Amino acid sequence: MEPIGDFEYSKKDLIGHGAFAVVFKGRHRKKPDFTVAIKCITKKNLAKSQNLLSKEIKILRELSDLHHENVVALLDCKETTHHVYLVMEYCNGGDLADYLQAKGTLSEDTIALFLRQIAAAMKALNAKGIVHRDLKPQNILLCHRGKPNASPQEIRLKIADFGFARFLQDGVMAATLCGSPMYMAPEVIMSLQYGAKADLWSVGTIVYQCLTGKAPFQAQTPQ
Questions:
Q1: How far is CA 159 from CA 45, 49, 62, 223, in A?
Q2: How many Cβ atoms are within 10 Å of 214's Cβ, its own excluded?
Q3: What is the pLDDT of residues 62-94, one digit of tens each?
């Protein structure tokens, strides 16, 4: 097992990987029943994005004080010469993209349940002046009490991956293009000034996909 502070993981327990990081399933060293997700970020992948990472950690730390049931909690953060490790709450239900793929479409009742939870998370983020900027089904994780066929009422949604999030100072709008074009607001894609409403557009595209089974805008290339 590889130790990370009070936690540990095995390299065999890979949960997922993205452009910058791999995520392992881990556990607390003294409480082995306490399961966590450990995100391992290789620094050399981040030569140009060092400040992006410190931003993510700063925001996650800010959010770990939030203790919101619909936002993935950050439990610990450790840095070594070559890696940064983020120890996060483990969500056992995969992500909304997988869930949609399995279900095809969702009923309006289910979408209403899910949307309330997403809205609660967005409200909490907005109160902290945080815009996520990369809301998409892959960044909405599902938790349930150990039942693989949990009913929608038993599922809790949690927003994750604040790699593109940043604090919006009062009146200072972010104007950088990042995230996933399919779910992005036009003002983000066109690098115009934008604020928290950009996340609302993303929520709209996600709801559309839940209803119809496909994203509202499709193309072969981002352009």
A1: 24, 22, 14, 27
A2: 12
A3: 777 788 999 998 888 888 888 888 899 999 999
